Records
---
Amino acid sequence: MNPVAGLLAVVVVTTLTLAIGVYGLRLSRTTSDFYVASRMVSPTWNASAIGGEYLSAASFLGAAGLIMTYGADMLWYPVGWTAGYLVLLVLVAAPLRRSGAYTLPDFAEARLESGAARRVASVLVVLIGWLYLMPQFRGAGLTLQIVTGAPAWAGGMLVGGVVLVNVLSGGMRSITFVQAFQYWLKLTAIALPVAFLVMAWRADGAPSVTDPEHRIPTFRETTDVQVKSDVVIVVEQPTTVRVDGLLDGTRRADERVRLRPGEHVVAAGTTLKFPAGAVVPTSENLRSVEGDSWVRLLGSGHPHPLYATYSLILATFLGTMGLPHVLVRFYTNPDGRAARRTALAVVGLLGAFYLFPAIYGALGRLYAPELLLTGRTDAVVLELPHRLLPGPGGQALGMLVTAGAFAAFLSTSSGLAVSVTGVLSQDLVRRWAGGVTGFRLSAVAAVAVPVALALVSERLSVASVVGLAFAVSASTFCPLLVLGIWWRRLTPTGAIAGLLVGGALAGSAVVVTLVAELSGWAAVLLEHPAAWSVPIAFATMVIGSLLTARHTPPHVARTMVRLHAPELLNLERGLPRHHPARQP
């Protein structure tokens, strides 16, 4: 793609985002405006905004990359991300809105009448938010590098700066306008190119990944592969290539080299020229599946695929309700009925979007197989338009896809930054600065930490990191919300124990996965911890509460009425007057 065209797309979407965000400054004057848009957002606007912030880098880039590499099993990611809203709709949406809280820590304190529970919830919100923000900034760096050739750190810094300006400008009210616009931009950016890509595919004879000649990814024509970061590739069949750069520690100057089966180390900056028909080597950390396994469920090649699949389903179904940037949206609805309507609309909007990543993944195996070699399969959505449609048309569609990708980073990052900022400002920074000033100081910390993490973390794919964030969310806030809303015997001690145990187990799995190379059962259990961490967290809360039944919150009956009674019957709506969220 022409770097100038890519840069223009980034500039346009960034400028529009900033303009809409600054416009929100005219409408944001109070603390309530900054935190929850004064709870006056309609279901239509709110559903679009939720779709905008929920469709992250993992949705726009990562899902297609995972499907390209591992096949049908990876469809559980978009299915789970969408179906999670059904669980949220049935169990959480309306009662959570009736709670009157601003944030998850607010809910924990109001339901459990415990400052300690609030502090534990605050720490978890910040950690989950940072874990989810990190892949957004990494994806931004990848996108800007592909379309403009800029350093990998530049995209993350750019998105972090824009998000910070947006949050500082207008808080939640401003972000609502931005994210609603960005949902429709993302839907257009991923859907419109598909129509042209499918036409180009049909004009090429409609090849299929299940055809005998395409069962194993091969180069359809002589292809130059530029390696932009050090990578270890795995060669399955002997292949002769031309090498210009450093291969296996030896400098080559456009020399023919016979690659033997096995592992080979390719340094950053090296160019490999593969002949037409050559089998595509794969990255050591990205073992692609082949043949019928690609289209068969439980054929992803992961060890113990049945366990991995069920754990993934559990994490995505239950993790949605514990994501702080998702839940804060339901606090912005006028009432519980509007919250339910919002959740139902979101299911439709997400379902429409997730029709398309699978198409990009399938076409990527045919027309961009070298991404399997470099391990940059997250880039398949960005690469396909100019691969299948050379010329101005492909450039225009490439610009549109680039704009959609940056909208994905900006919208999700904005929602997460607002959520993390709200918790930091209420529970930490307010000791030194309150109100809007404290909110803005907290925004700097909310953005700076994940930007730094994104700069030093490169091993896992975007969607994998987001999947781990879902596992942590499902192991902590899902039990808290479900039991807190539907089980009156939940006690502060039981809830805190469950949060700590679930957070420690899933969090430890995340850390080990990020820093260690594992295999066998150890790898699959830590890469997909939800199947065991979620039940343990639930059990810990239940057992801990039963053992400390005498510490049941004294006003639990009043709280449960507030959560479940229609708003018209709630004479004292919202949180108790002594609660910090009540303060101006």
---
Amino acid sequence: MTKRKGKPLEKNKKTCGVYKMKIGLCIGLLWPFIILPALNPKLNTELPEKYEKWIKEEVVYIITPIEREVFFKLENDQERDLFIEEFWQQRDPTPGTPRNEFKDEHYRRIEYANKVFGRGIPFKGWRTDRGKYYIALGRPSHVERFITSDINPIEIWYYSGNPKLGQAPSYRLLFFQRHGTGEFELYSPVADGPKSLVPFTQRRSEFPGIEKLLKPEELKKMEEYYIDERDARAYAILRFNVGLDLAEASLSNIPGRSGPEYIIPSTILLGEVASYPHKKVDDDYAYEFLEHKAVVEVSYSVYYIGNQAKASVIQDPSGLFFVNYIIVPEVLSIDSYADKYFTNLKASLHLTDREGKTIYQGERSVPLELKENELKVLEKSSFQLCDSFPVIPGDYTLNLLLENMVTKEFTSFEKKLSVPDGENLQMSPMVLARKVNRDSPYSQSTRAYQVGDLQIYPLVNNTLLQKDTLFIFFQIYGLTQAMQARGRLEFTFYSGEKVFQRERKDIQQFGNNRDFLEEIPLQKFPAGTYTIEVSLLSHMGQKLYSARENFSVTTAALPSSWIVAQTNPHAVDPYYAYVLGNQYLNKGDVQKAHDALAQAYTKDPDSLEYAMGYTRILAPLKEFQRVREILTPFEQAGQEDFSLFFQLGRASKEVGKLEEAITYYQKALSHRGNIAEILNTIGECYLELGNNNQALRAWEKSLEINPKQEKIEKMIKQLIKKK
């Protein structure tokens, strides 16, 4: 191990700094001697393909002019990679977590734009007007669509802005198909005018008495603001054949501000809206990056570290399937203070199905504290982290991010996984191991790669010594009695393309109808690379299933392993039913989600987490009285939780307990501050109770938060009239 010292934890204290295994780079010593380069004013407009795509397609709507200028001044791919990483970090709303929600959302928007707005046109959806504003501004809070014979197809998108960022409190964007077909274009009251929203034939058709429908002062005002007779006729068609809201939107992008006098302010607003994403970031960092990029290169060069990793799906004796994984980072940095050596790792898991839907997310902290003698052992060992989590049947992609929270280094890996139902005949992939413990305790807790009393220590790089024994573990699901009695297993070892060794065994010899473990001494295997194929054969010798793995035999010394295997509850613990229930819920299987979440709650009814999980599935099933029965004891016991009060409020309203609902909703607001939707519901409860004054107060508060609520505005006007 090579030591790398970092910044001392505290002056005048004995400290050994940060130790980095396998890397001899002393960043703390290099930085003071770096000479900063002069700024290069030349723009590198010719870029490699991936950077061309990034700057001109992926971030074209959100990158600021300053960031764009700096990016074109960068001189090599390493600088561009570092800048791109910094670009996303500047926008990360939760920089202390492994996930960058802004980046994930941005690429989700691009995917959505290409999928939805690119239909029926000869180019990708991100290039359309709707795609541009969807990517830049996000999903609108409300969309109105107009499709009638009187007008061209129209969509109006409503948004709420953030005045603190210099944005309009609320605004709307109108998109239309200029000739009734093709791409939806962004509408401008000045450049397009109402006439562009109405088909040519409709504009030319007789519209009786337009001067009678529009008052003289209205026509005069339209003329003052550059609206000609064709626009006036189209405006009348919109107003009297479709609706006042659409007619007003044809003149103004500002809700509640109608009339031709708002045409110019709307044009200014449209120009500003495109730059709204720029207001969310302070782009001064880009110039700092350009000025100090030599320092940045050194500091970032060890930020990502490589790894070796494996993930396996194994069925527990309880019948549950678990994803078991092992990851070996190439580098493990250890910090020190006095005579203690420590680090803190965080493993973040993300499991998605074939459609990209998130099925499971989890985080786990792994603190390590070592004594000096343990540190010396670790220096000569391969650090391996193992863990597992339960999973429902399906095909998934697993993403694992491992972070060193002390040094901010990270590594990651991705793996495709298939989880069977366990009923149909199927054979799992193999797990190769150098060591197996057959007497592992299986009582109150389990560890990764533990199957009953069998603890497997999997190989990560599939390399063994010639003196070792190779352990081959796999599972077969859905074996019939006939297959158990007459089926066979064939173990074939290949050296290159040639068969090196082959052996057949009856399934009965293993004494197990699901878990299979075969031991192969390697003393007769010369050093080299081999392939092991395990095949499931019928009694007629027909190959039904097979699995292959490569491994190597060497005579060179291998490092010992320092294994950190996280301890997990026994498979019958209600925690697993809770996790699986949420996975079924994420997948859309309501019935299985209900059964699993009910099981978790039944086993541990004192857990608020399990109770909340169960009631989240009861609410869509309209079992609101049951929700109250489950959650009320927690509220009576003094539990303070926003979700608890919100669920109780909703359930109480649904069963007619309006006063209780108001009390619960008010408690929920005390935890999160005023929320428009909850205030609206409180107003509805007061209205049903006949307390119009309190209903009015709740709705007025709601409008202060979100002014664009036409339904609430109408209800307030009705209450005021009754006074």
---
Amino acid sequence: MPPRFTNRLVGETSPYLLQHAHNPVDWYPWGDEAFEVARRTGKPVFLSIGYSTCHWCHVMEEESFEDLEVAGFLNEHYVAIKVDREERPDVDTVYMTAILALTGSGGWPMSVWLDAERRPFYAGTYFPARDGDRGARSTGLLTVLRELAEIHRAQPERVAEAAQSITATIRSAMGGAQSEGPVPGTAVVDAAAQAYARAYDPTFGGVRGAPKFPATFPVRLLLRHHRRTGEAASLAMVEHTLAMMAAGGMHDQLAGGFHRYSTDARWLVPHFEKMLYDNALLALAYAEACQVTHRRDFARVLRTTLDYVLREMTAPEGGFFSATDADSEGEEGTFFVWSEDEIRTLLGAQAERFIAFYGVTARGNFEGKNVLYVPAPDEEAWEALGDARELLRTAREARPHPLRDEKILTAWNGLMISALAVGGNVLDEPRYVAAAAHAAAFVLGALRRDGRLQRSWKDGRPSGPGFLEDDAFFVAALLDLHEATFETRWLAEALALAARTETLFGDDEHGGWFRTAGDHETLLAREKPNQDGAEPSGASVALQNAVRLYALTGDERWRRIAERALEAYAPMLREHPTALHEMLLGLEAFVSTTPEIVLVWPAGSSSGPDAFRDLLRRTYVPSRALLGASEGDELDALARLAPIAAGKTAVDGRPTAYLCERGACRLPTTDPAVLEAQLAALR
């Protein structure tokens, strides 16, 4: 049966916008046309921002945007605009800043009332359709729409005053630090580690309380802190947190990968969305923890997470899809949960052992069903249940699947390319590295126009120019891919893209970076990212890239770019170090020693530098700059990009390692044990 309604969103590629293309609401996409209509008609704008796998976005659509009375009022009294926050994070940040200023908390769906000049005068998140729909005291969207339409009509001066005040707040909050200072030392890293120790949950790991998000506990920062200081508590917090996350229901025990967050303090019952960026960042955390601890369970979680991405989140073209929904069959979590009877029927004689290992009960732990988790982790028991898990996973595949958002975001692909390259190296698994290379080639081909990365790709169409995080995350991915493969082309692409990033996003006057390029659409404010969230900020990763590129190339330009950024962010880092925990990774590398490792081997060598690679994949050396090439043309090409490689030779015709600090190299060695001792001395 054909849809009854079709609106302007039908021509978009965003899965989120297309979900609303047949609402009775007369939606506009974000753009000048909608605001011109608002100016011409004198109507206010109702802006709704969400994303395709957002549970409460689906609820609000069904309750309000499919409701003919609500839609009719919107169409008559407002210009209604829909935005996919994942395609337009710049728009999302502007109006999320308004919501935070007005209410103290935010989330999606985001509901914002604007004037024709794009200035917000009221904002909130989810609203039920009518008063009392979600409890006696709840105010419905229809009531708010009516009241604000009347205020906009009858009290324009009140609306203008509110819009002016909120806009000033947005500009102040997004403008970045207004003062500078000297580059902080590692004391701010120590302060952040102490803050996390105070907030730490000694029972379940992570930060105390609920809900629990993985990104609120920066594993990679604490691993670096442990390495530099020898502080045992930092490592203990990391190990316990990673083990508890892996054992909990937030970890998909059958298929691998992680859900978005835990609704409780135990990592037990998740919000069932799966996001590409979460899985990439967690894979990196487990990979580094593998190197530090050599724990089998961490290696296993890393492997199953990457396997999940290759199996379920990889496009035929090579890029990675964005997310999967929490809902299926109209309910959250239905795809993922089990009754005890289902498990007994499917597993037969294996059921009793499986039920005991995965905490299954007749009563269940989620609305009468069971989210699988592991009350008492045991690697041998886990391995013994492999066939049972596969039986259940196969049966689960026959269920109606949650929606998959198949747009390919450059930034999130950058994170996953890094995870596959680093994880493939740590696990000595070439297929992961090959998948990373395939994805990078796809991005460079399909998501680059005139040398400039685009934000996203769907159905053969890019969405438009990318943002700082698209460039920064992808530069980091190319550097990780170069380290994993020693292919010079990835380093060359990284250097060229990083230089263009500075041209597009760099703040030449004050240091640091803007989120949008100078030729980007002008919004109410041009953001200078000043905090890390569920993803690192583009500024944090751009800083790490600059430090890394300086170590690789010796080019003073990159050192100065990093230094000026740290000067610009110095007040924030000193006052609120946990707000920029990912930037602290770059700070620690900048003020500490960044080892440069150059491997050289004879052309045509059958094994190349394998013995050294084996050492490096099991040795935790954060913030290193790793280069490698065979003698001859490959080494010459590398030296043109990274002069530190110039003049290096394979001593006595054997693979040779050079360990350097700021361009000064120790004696070369052909013995991995000697390199191991040299690396240990760096601590």
---
Amino acid sequence: MSTLVREPHQNSLDAPAAAGRPVRTRLSIVGPAPEHRSYFMNLFAGLVPHLKASGIDLADIDLGMPRILLVEDFGTTGLTGDFTDRKDKQPFNNFWRRIGRSTKGGTAGGRWGLGKLVFSSASQIQTFFGLTVRHDDPEHTPLLMGQAVLANREVDGRAYAPHVFFAVPGTTGLQLPESDPAAVGAFRRAFGITRNTEPGLSIAVPFILPQITEKALVPEVLQNYFFPILTGRLTVEVGGEKISEATFDTVSAKYGWGSPEANTGLVSFVRELHLAGQPDAVLGPGWTDSMEQALEPAVLEKLRTGLATGGLVHVRAPLTLRRKTGKAFETHLDLFLRKTPDGSRGRALYVRSAITVPDEARYFSPRQTLGALIATDEGITSFLGDAENPAHTKWNGQADKLKDWKNAAAKLREIRNSLNRLQNALMQAVETVEPDALKDLFSISDAGEVKPQKTRGPRPSVPPVPPPVPSGPKSWYRIERSVGGFVVRPGAGLAEENLPFELKVKAAYDVARGDPFAKFSPYDFDLNRKQIAIATSGADCTVTAANEVTVNVWSTDFSVELQGFDGRRDLIIKAAR
């Protein structure tokens, strides 16, 4: 469901007709209409033998009564480029005629040429259609095509490749779109297309899977595209429910998006950083080695004070990226931090252009802070786009397209770790004295002034913080304990050539007799149930048992923090490579 929402919106945000104006999309489900039965039966008649040869069971599918998902965008350019018998590297050819390849670059969101497969995957008959009007066409002629993605198959003794097109045959073998007004008009009426001559693209997916509903699509829009919506770049309508910058709070409350407590702070944070002007500071050379040294002492102190007092901190990090061709990009990324208003655990956003890259948030260790890494400059968005997986959910330092960049893996580590390192540079432990903190628990009647009495009785004791777990001389890692948890950090012996390496970490509460790990019970704690908060930087962490995690370390400046254990019990920790 998530990819079904992400893919079309990435393409729509890639193609605004005018800079600075929001893109509008409309998602709706059109129910079966008996008056169009004959149209649909004729439309799909030629496809039936191919569906059967592909092993698709049509027993429970009435080909005359499709349930249709419509995804339409407005305020976009439409699928521009040559649609005749020639191929070019423009959107029309990229969408309809390229499989597994894409010519997108720069700030464009989609890159892989595979995203459109999400439409056929959402159809019980593996089929979708597209109707486009291009903004540079003075006649605004609608162009219609369709595609089915089936198995390799044999029909009437003839072998067929997976892709089937609903199209007009071209003289060179390429498929051409239908542009006849009568044919296009009949399609629009039967499928419920609302587009007339407005530029943009309408996708129609017939016989959508039963679990796809308008109600189910709304939370996916909120979750995946809150950033461009809140920053005024996108407006989405789902079944008549309009989701915009102005209505976002009402809609998210109505549909119960995520945790209200967490999202309230996140939404206000996004709105605040959207209104931010020039950065509070620009990091100097060498920030990838030391954030503190890249800032003047007075500026560093000002940023620390601003963060400690609840203000928004905005720092720009300049970066030079080079392609192997020799072309250099003097680019930058913007880093934002703000303390959570209620002292709750923070969250992070990693954004390329208008696309959030959700899995990258695991590399930020939120210590009661909200953080955002925003990359919008062309140089850095080109680099990060080449690092993304096909689903656009995370960056991979070993991605195939990064082979065109110099020192790609190291540069990605610098970018990925920048937000966490800025937080480390600005966060300071602050001790405060609260003389009235316990007055509601311990009080005396107001019968006149009572002078404090000196006593020689025992003083209240505070349980000492357990000492660090010894990890041996020149170990690649060390474990620092605290009341309520522990942190795994680099040891004195860790060097770049040791990376990557894997570490297994187990924990258990101590027992009076016997092996605490042998006597561990999931009733003590269970890492699978999120009872313990896990934050990572420079490493991936996977829960492999109720009391065990496997850590894959890829940075010499890594940390893995586990917090939320019972501070009244002794925690035993065991780690091994």
